Amino acid sequence: MPEKENNIGLLLIAISGVFLVAGIFMFLYIMLVNERKKRFLQEKDNMKAEFENELVKASFEVQEQTRKNIASDLHDNIGQLMSLTSVILGSVNLADPDKSATKIFDARQLVVRSIQELRSLSKVLYGDNILQNGLVASLKQEIAWFEKAGRFSIDFISNTDEPPAAEREWELFVFRLLQESLNNIIKHSQANRVVISLEYTMERLVVLISDNGIGFDVAARAPGSAGLGLLNMRRRVMLLNGTMDITSANQRGTEMRFSIPYKKHGG
Amino acid sequence: MLWFYTSIVDIVFVCFVCSVFFLKQKNAGWYRHFIWFLGLSFLVELAGYLCFFIYHTKNHFIFKFFMPVEAIFSFWAMAHIFKNLIRNTALLFWVVTGSFIACYTIEVLSIQFTEYSSISSDVLSFAVIILCLLYYYLFLKQETYTNLWQHADFWVLTGFFLFYFVITASNYFFKHVSGINQKSIIPLRFSILIVINLILYGCWTYAFLCRKRKTISASY
User: Fold this and answer.
1) Which contiguous run of DSSP H or E holds residue A204?
2) pTM of the predicted model, to two decimals?
3) Which residues of chain B are within 8 Å of residue A23 when distances are taken between CB atoms?
4) Could you tell me if residue B7 is inside a domain?
């Protein structure tokens, strides 16, 4: 009997012990899941902070690029016009009225052109908000800047002239991506023709930028030393939950494809 | 060996003293009710000890009549804890409490005065375990993060859960031991009770400390 009682006693301890251990495991499981939740929320906060940071950077870069474009235009275009005006007026010989009249007329034409250029510049500077007319309009303006240099022929195709209203931050990111793609084409591609295609759907914006330049080895490309490198572009596309594909080969031009979920205004 | 038999009384007393020290401020909120409940629990445990170990009489009736107080307080405390997780805690409280009171009343009227209400005890244990599991599920489902080491409600529930989870198994096994001299394994069962009471009141004491820290940080 005592042996049976001992066995019962051991069984009682064992059962109680098992239940206690099970209870403690439940407790530890809850602690573990809670810690995982903490890490997840921290990652989410980090991503949000990174997004905000990239947004500020993108906004700054757009402004910087705009100012560079303006500075370049002032120097190369208006500066040249004014210099030429000054040379012409300096060569006027009042003793020869006919030639003087022609020169003064030419100088006046140059001044009129300068005024027109200055007026278009002031429209950009006024409000200093490159995207106030929307992504398509801003992109057309940007393309007009690039085409002024005379080196490129840029074809712009959009499946709509009035795309759905999107969140300003989203448009800023997309505009910056396109702006930098064009900059890279100018700096590296040695192309003379660029095609930009915007295809809006209900869910996504698909952007195709292709050039007829020298191409490059996509896999071997190191992060850009100036401006926005390819890695940074990929990171920003990922922040928008989009995808980025680059197709390029030596002497066969380059095609960049961005597919970005649409973020509607107020959505 | 006296210390062995007074262990549970000592544990409850220490927890009671801690509750007085940690929860005496007004901004401890509903936690202040733990003070009177633990005071009463201490008196009940002391009376039970005196009856059984000093006067050598059955003490089941003491714990039997304390059971409704214990149940109502437990469900009431849980209703407060559930307030952050579900809307209609009052309904939950009344349904659970009402069911227990009905069960208890029927059992008390159908058994002898000195007999323990084992069915009601099982119903109480089962209800507490289910409510604790429900709390854990709702807690994990929340999107926000809560630091468990500073969350008093969690420790109160965990104390309840571990206590009733183990005691249910122990009681169930003890009841169904047949043809054995149960008295011979009472010290063993008592040892298990000491351990789980230590866990219960240990968790509650930590919960009171968390609550005190929260009231201090809220007042700055």
Assistant:
1) strand A204-211
2) 0.68
3) 161-162, 165-166
4) yes
- Give the whole-angstrom CA distance, residue B90 versus residue B88: 5
Interface confidence, given as ipTM, is 0.79
pLDDT at site B183: 61
b/e string for A108-122 if b means 16 or more Cβ within 10 A?
eebeeebeebeeebe
Lateral strand order in the sheet of A204-211: A153-158, A193-200, A204-211, A254-261, A243-248
pLDDT in tens, B126-136: 999 999 999 99
Question: Which residue out of B133, B170, B186, B199 would a mutagenesis test of the A interface target, given it has the greatest number of A Cβ atoms within 10 Å?
Answer: B170
Please check the confidence at residue B37 and state whether its pLDDT lies above 90. Answer: yes
- Asked if A34 reaches chain B (Cβ–Cβ under 8 Å), the answer is yes
Minimal C-alpha gap between A240 and chain B (Å): 23
Domain count along chain B: 1
Residue B219 lies in a domain: no
Please indicate, yes or no, if residue B9 is contained in any of the structural domains. Answer: yes
> Under an 8 A CB cutoff, do A8 and B177 touch?
yes
Read off the tokens for A9. Answer: 């006693």
> For B140-188, how does the pLDDT look when each residue is reduced to its tens digit (9 = 90+)?
998 888 899 999 999 999 999 999 999 888 877 766 654 455 566 667 7
